Amino acid sequence: MTTSRDAVDAGAAALAALKHAYAPYSHFRVGAALRATDGTVVAGCNVENAAFPAGTCAERGALAAAVATGHRDFDLIVVATDASEPTPPCGMCRQALAEFAPSLHVVGITTAGKRADWALSELLPQPFTPASLTNT
Q1: Span 72-113, pLDDT tens digits
Q2: Active site residues per annotation
Q3: Which of 55, 61, 64, 65 is deepest in the core (most CB within 10 A)?
Q4: Please, what sign has the CA dihedral across residues 56, 86, 101, 11?
């Protein structure tokens, strides 16, 4: 299990990314920082679009940036919001994260200092995985 101390750098990166979020429609800004198992932290923020399905969540933005730089193994994601309570990733992000790290440690933090911890496996107990594609 990742400790609070282990999540400090990722938390700072998630809060920094939150400041760059583009959320003119929902006004729900999100920053996320994904930590690769080699310690590299890659951040992302949500980017909304007037054509609502075209937007990108912070978690998937961080995942895409990490994969684009060659990272495929992750142990932690920190999701930062301005919300009153910590927010876990949405269902689509949970599924995308499970592709690479089904045992990922998920930390939700707020700008007010609240924190919550989850295991991705508890947030998405039965993910669709590459094994789901095998013919039995």
Answers
A1: 999 999 999 999 999 999 999 999 999 999 999 999 999 999
A2: 59
A3: 61
A4: positive
